[in-house]
Amino acid sequence: MNHLFLDNSLWRNIYCVLAGESAECAARDYSSGFLPGGMEWLAFLLAAAAIIGIVINAVLGGVIVLIWGERRLFGRFQSRTGPNRWGPFGTLTSVADAVKTMFKEDLVPAEADRILFNLAPVLIAAPALLVFSVIPFGVGTYVADLNVGVLFIMAVTSLTTLAVLTAAWSSANRIAILSALRSVALLISYEIPMALALVGVIMLAGSMALGDIIAAQGIPFILVQPLGFFVFFIAAMAEMARAPFDLTEAESELAAGYLNDYASMKFGLFFLAEFMAELSTSAIVTTLFLSGWKGFDPIPSHFWFAAKLIAVLFVIIWFRMTLPRLRVDQVLKFAWKGLFELTMINIIVTAVLIAIWPQPTTGQLWIMAAINWPVAIISIWGVSKLLGTPAYENSQPSADAPTYPVASESIPAASVLGADKGGD
Amino acid sequence: MTPVMEVSALTTIAFWAASAMTLGFAAIVVTQRDVFRAAIALAGSFLGVGILYFVLSAEFVGVVQILVYVGAISVLMAFAVMFIQDIASGSRPAQGRLVGVAAAVLVFAALAFTAYNTEWSSQNELSPDAVVALTEGYYEVGEGDDIRVELTEPAGDNDVVVANGGAFVESTGAVGVLLVREYMLAFEIIGLLLVAALIGGLLLMRNPPSSNKTEKGDASV
């Protein structure tokens, strides 16, 4: 059997406590175990089950806390109190919501394709959980350190598209189909800048394994790869389909989109998957750009990871609360004409820098950062100049020629007002 | 040194489970009349093939299989399916059944012939040293026609030494090196082909044959 997994402390502790006097654990100072010799395969299976249980429950617990924190923060951002009825500071609100969701009636529309309708929540929750299998939560605390970790994350998150399509199609609902069309366009478009933004990080680290990427971060890669971070963060927000990119379930336009016909715990799974995606995105950003669990010494690595994770979550919630929803054509144009170009600039600049310093030391990383920041600022400014809506020339409307703020290229102001006002 | 690729009972179980998944979903694809369900089952079949690659330690190929086939091609198929009439009752049965059966038999014969005639090297037939060299890496020592393979790096030698990663340890890196060194031309040609396909698609979309000339002038978005 492959015993390389014993380099991982999460596996080793559970396996060796169970495995008895096996040869692999003897060398690692575990004297005796619970199972008799020759039962290593059972120890392997039990350890795997235990680790899966730990990670899934930790993630679900994290989601419960996240929902509470997000709603409290929403309250703050909107100058109101937020949930505060159940438990101290409303901490039990999410628990009450979970219980309520579970006991609701489970409705299935008469026209729905029952098999696919029941399959879709599973299809959406499974990939959201799978992402956590490659994330290092602390020193030696991970389920697996695949040598294609980054690519694995991209592959697994791309499965969401199929789940959304299945949910929409199986519920036999026009509004759900409209939502799925938007969702597929959104997810497929933003997958490309999201993957390309990570190429810079992969080139700097020389590896796609998350462990190696953390080890390569002499300074956090957010300093060396500002453009990559900018694009990845926005694309990841879009992949989560949260505001300002929540056009797939836009309440004011599509009721709830593909979630329209789901009730009870099936809706609960979609809801969970959404928050798990938020959690996993923050974990990925923490690992790839904020040097993961690295920190200085007296504080354990797991706390560093948690602190950085919460900081990223705060920024995501802040974004969600601040920006209004974008239109579907604006969103797609931004991905293909804006973010895509920025990733290309980032890849070319990083490739040149890597050609100069193939295996950068911390000092060389600082030099790269000093080069990359001006490049990032200039290119973001340039792209926003090229793409952005031109500023209105008359900020003060005059009485005889009123101007209306119609901020769109596809609907020129002139055609809306029914008169040619000149200019574009 | 423990051999990395020793076939354990768990690997065997994983192999049969993934194979059963692939074949089972494939059977659903051909028997299911509802086209959308068939498309979803096809995604499951692709996923089974991806898991098989993982079982065979080809992580890179496995992940790319999931990324491309399950994440993109299945979605495309499910999308295309929506334009078919009468999805629930299924499409019309294919007309040329005889041709279909003949094609299937020919493809199966070709695959079976290739598989039967390939010399599969089992780990039992390799020497222990060869297994270590394949799984944990080896060193090529010497130049030109006079190259010998060593398991450990020779010290105090004037010969040229080239370190090789094991085939199963560094498959991702090996794929990358092969793509940009040995198969550079093929890689670039495929890239060119994809760009041509993209531009072709854009051209088809921009000039629909039914549009008249006054509209063409405005198409500058």
UniProtKB/TrEMBL annotation, chain A:
Catalyzed reactions: a quinone + NADH + 5 H(+)(in) = a quinol + NAD(+) + 4 H(+)(out)
UniProt GO cellular component terms: plasma membrane
Classification via Pfam families: NADHdh (PF00146)
Domain of life: Bacteria
Membrane topology: Multi-pass membrane protein
InterPro entries named in the record: NADH_UbQ_OxRdtase_su1/FPO (IPR001694), NADH_UbQ_OxRdtase_su1_CS (IPR018086)
Protein family (similarity comment): Belongs to the complex I subunit 1 family.
Record-given protein name: NADH-quinone oxidoreductase subunit H
Organism: Candidatus Lucifugimonas marina
Gene label: nuoH
TrEMBL record, chain B:
GO molecular function: NADH dehydrogenase (ubiquinone) activity; quinone binding
Catalytic reactions of this protein: a quinone + NADH + 5 H(+)(in) = a quinol + NAD(+) + 4 H(+)(out)
Chief place of localization: membrane
Regions that span the bilayer: 13-31, 38-56, 62-84, 96-116, 183-204
Membrane-related topology note: Multi-pass membrane protein
Compartments (UniProt record): Cell membrane
Keyword tags: Cell membrane, Membrane, NAD, Quinone, Transmembrane, Transmembrane helix
Enzyme Commission (EC) number: 7.1.1.-
Domain of life: Bacteria
GO annotations of cellular component type: plasma membrane
Reported function: NDH-1 shuttles electrons from NADH, via FMN and iron-sulfur (Fe-S) centers, to quinones in the respiratory chain. Couples the redox reaction to proton translocation (for every two electrons transferred, four hydrogen ions are translocated across the cytoplasmic membrane), and thus conserves the redox energy in a proton gradient.
Classification via PANTHER family: NADH-UBIQUINONE OXIDOREDUCTASE CHAIN 6
Family note: Belongs to the complex I subunit 6 family.
Protein name per the record: NADH-quinone oxidoreductase subunit J
UniProt source species: Candidatus Lucifugimonas marina
